[in-house]
Amino acid sequence: MSFNVGLSGLNAANTALNVTGNNIANSATTGFKSSRAEFGDVYANSLFLGSAKNGVGSGVTTEQISQQFNQGTITNTGASLDMAINGNGFFMTSDNGARVYTRAGAFGTDKSGNIVDANNNQLMGYGVDTDGKVVQGVLIPLKVDTSALAPKPSDSLSETMNLNSSAVAPSVTPFDAKDTNTYNYSFSTDIYDSQGNSHSLSQYFVKDNTNQWTMYATVDGVNPHDPTSTVPYTATLNFSSAGVLGTTSVGTPTVGAGFTQAANGKFTLTDWVPAAKNAAGVMAANGSAPADGGLVMNMTATTSYNTSSAVTAKDQNGYATGSLTTLSIDGEGNMFGTYSNGKSKTIGQVVLANFANVQGLTPNGNTGWRESASSGVPVVGAPQSGTMGTLNAGALEESNVDLTAELVNLIKAQSNYQANAKTISTQSTIMQTIIQMT
């Protein structure tokens, strides 16, 4: 019996103890992947097959320490920038330009708004263009932009409504917005100018005869072309006997500029931003403006049926400025910012990387890995694309260490160590006996 055999066994048992101890130590480390020591027996090489046919082995050697990339348990945290990968893939981070891959998705922001991990590595992903569309193929460090969302002036308003065909013409004339007895139905819509100021577009409807209605429109209670005028914008709506909107036309009062008809049921407000009163009480421009081309009012879906007058759908595309209030991430990695004005937009997309041989990745420490010649080059893509897993936002992937199994492995490694130590002790006793005999 050779001392080398027992010594190799001690080294192997010590390696197993180290691997098991490291697994146990990281059983609570987010995104940690357990390792396994793999051993192989050793035989002396010989040029003569006959001498090695029934040869005794020369001990054991550590062939490799392989990492087990099986899925860890996903636990919800509620934090908006915590992310867990359910399936294949790694987060891509940048360590001063060097790529580091990790399964630990505990991210936050630095003072500049960059999304970083605890080691200040920046999370990589796809950016967006000016229209808020993800630009795939170009990787950039992801960032949470906390600047205010620029306002958008209203240039489109779509309305779906019904005007009660059984209504009778008001008994009180002429029309007066302050007197509800002079009109049959009214409602208001918030619209926005170039500075994000909100204005109230009010529409009043008066039944003229069997199939004809007159619409009166004001912005902030006045005719915006001339706020001193008492005459609002007007339009005539004619309906067929089936209650479908037919021909329409705009009125021509003394003050009517800025309100035109583009087509039947479509009207354009080109000068709808009212002037404001200055300190002297004189009407003066407030510096804001309507959208280029004005505000197009689409009323083609208006009907006149024998049912209550009501607006059933309404949509306008303007909004005021807003500040970022919440951040959310979907299963495909799209990051959405929600703003105080109720609007939301895509601000980036998290990407994942995968490798042909994940066992070939080089451990980097801090629950990260680096690419190596054995791993192959990374395949980068969005979550849920190709072989990439799904992204779970507001959650973290726990260590995949099976603590019960590791404690069993610890006992086995300890027994192995003691047994190999016994072989060396026995060999020493035999050697001493032989020496004494001589």
Defining traits:
438 residues, mainly beta, Tick-borne Encephalitis virus Glycoprotein, domain 1, 3 helices, eleven-stranded antiparallel β-sheet, five-stranded mixed β-sheet
The gist of it:
The protein is mostly beta strands and 438 residues long. Helices cover 14% and strands 38% of the residues. It is built from three helices and 31 strands.
Topology summary:
Layout: H1 3-25, E1 35-42, H2 49-52, E2 59-67, E3 74-76, E4 83-86, E5 90-95, E6 98-102, E7 108-109, E8 115-116, E9 122-128, E10 134-141, E11 156-162, E12 185-192, E13 198-209, E14 212-219, E15 233-239, E16 245-250, E17 259-263, E18 266-269, E19 276-277, E20 283-284, E21 295-298, E22 310-316, E23 324-329, E24 334-339, E25 344-350, E26 352-354, E27 362-365, E28 368-370, E29 379-381, E30 390-393, E31 395-397, H3 403-437
Parallel strand pairs: 11-21
Antiparallel strand pairs: 1-2, 3-31, 4-30, 5-6, 5-9, 5-26, 6-28, 7-8, 9-10, 9-25, 11-22, 12-13, 13-14, 14-15, 15-16, 17-18, 18-21, 19-20, 23-24, 24-25, 26-29, 27-28
Helix pairs in contact: 1-3
Describe the protein in words.
- The protein has 438 residues and is mainly beta.
- The chain has 3 domains: 3-70 and 401-437, no CATH class; 77-135 and 346-397, no CATH class; 156-316, Flagellar hook protein FlgE (Tick-borne Encephalitis virus Glycoprotein, domain 1, Sandwich), CATH 2.60.98.20.
- Helices cover 14% and strands 38% of the residues.
- The chain has 3 helices and 31 strands.
- The protein has helices spanning 3-25, 49-52, 403-437; strands at 35-42, 59-67, 74-76, 83-86, 90-95, 98-102, 108-109, 115-116, 122-128, 134-141, 156-162, 185-192, 198-209, 212-219, 233-239, 245-250, 259-263, 266-269, 276-277, 283-284, 295-298, 310-316, 324-329, 334-339, 344-350, 352-354, 362-365, 368-370, 379-381, 390-393, 395-397.
- Strands 5, 6, 9, 10, 23, 24, 25, 26, 27, 28 and 29 form an 11-stranded antiparallel sheet that branches. A 5-stranded mixed sheet has the order 17-18-21-11-22, with no helix packed on it. Strands 12-13-14-15-16 form a 5-stranded antiparallel sheet, with no helix packed on it.
- A hairpin with a 2-residue loop joins strand 17 (259-263) and strand 18.
- Helix 1 (3-25) packs antiparallel against helix 3.
- Mean pLDDT is 89; it is low at 277-284.
